[in-house]
Amino acid sequence: MATGRSSFTQHVLFFALFLNIILVLAAPVSATGATQPSSADSDLICHTSDVADCYPRVFRATDEFQTVHDDQELPPGLHVRLNVWTGLREAKINVPDEENPALEGLPVDQAVVLVEPEQPEVPLIPKGAPAYEAVGKIKEPEHEASSFHEALKMVKSSAIKSEADLDDALEGLEDISHDIYYGLKITEDPSVLKALFCLMADEEASTTEGAVPRDQQAASILSSALQNNPSALKEVTKTWSTLMSHQCAKDGKPLAQSFHSSLIAPDSVAPKHVASKAKAKIGAINGLIKDDDIRAEFMKEGGMQRLLQVLLPEGKEWVGAQRKVGQLVLDNFLDEDMGATLGQWPTEPKLDDAQCEGAEGLAQEGCWDYHVAKIMKANKSNKGHWSRDVHDRLAKLRKNAPKHKEL
User: Fold this and answer.
1) How far is the C-alpha of 12 from the C-alpha of 3, rounded, in Å?
2) Beta bridge partners of 73
3) Which domains does the chain carry?
4) Which of 81, 241, 344, 405 has the fewest CB atoms within 10 Å, measured from its CB?
5) What is the pLDDT of residues 190-218, one digit of tens each?
6) MF terms per GO, please (predicted)?
7) CA distances from 102 to 34, 62, 64, 99, 236 (A)
8) Bridge partners of residue 80, in order along the sequence
């Protein structure tokens, strides 16, 4: 009997212990302070099983800024800001006319704080330091053309092997002169420059059959060498006065007497060749008059009147040369975006159409407007034709010119 009573007691105790375990597991956990959402907090957003990570679907604002979760709904009328340090949105109850003490004394424009940037310190230039060069050093090619220096010797030498060799040398230089390195090398040699300018000014230079006329070839070489090559132009300006006083071997006259008058070839030359020569020479002049002193001299010697003569002939062979004239005028006198300084040209007032129709007005500077308008009318279907831009800019320049000062 004692044994049976003891066994029954053990079963009762075991059952009581089992009930206690069930009750403990079923009780809410309060040690961490977290509770199951009540019916009042049923509209929550929970991304984990931990109730402590849940937050209301509708943001509950207080008087202090709190982080706004991306998937929370914001009631209207709150003060919302972006925390620049965390990149998170924050919001609180909006208080009208509330001032932020941290912004006191700072200029504010449309809620944007304007902070004056610190001016960088300008480094002191040591005394005797070399002048700053805007143009960087021109890199030499890895393998210099072997025939280049032979061509230079041929051009500046008075004792050439044959006429054909000279023409071949000129053709080789024209092919390579557009390269910024070789363009600079061509202009660095005063003897080469003198030879090229003498050839360019020689309207009747002899040429072997089938070759490009030498005055045209020389002009093309100079044009390519100077194009977008400030260093090459600088080399030419160094020796400009010496160049213009140089006497060419053929006629013994200084270059200054023939250079500016050689733009248009004699009437005896075929029109196609005249136009091709003019186009090449205009390209060279456009590169040269990027220099202020050379440009002033060109205008003083009647260069603009001679350019106007290129606009007079009619025929498709003149289209390229006339476009070059338009480009020159825009680049140097009418278009500030291309580096032109307005007000340097024209220097004479506009003439009436009647004055420009006759022979006397063919080359007068005041007739530029008339002849450009004539070309524009002939190309009225082409809205992008150069003549339209020149016409409009020239008209605007004349209109804005001071009334007390004649152009």
Assistant:
1) 15
2) 58
3) 51-93 (no CATH), 146-318 (1.25.10.10), 349-401 (no CATH)
4) 405
5) 999 999 999 999 877 777 788 899 999 99
6) adenyl-nucleotide exchange factor activity
7) 37, 21, 16, 9, 63
8) 91
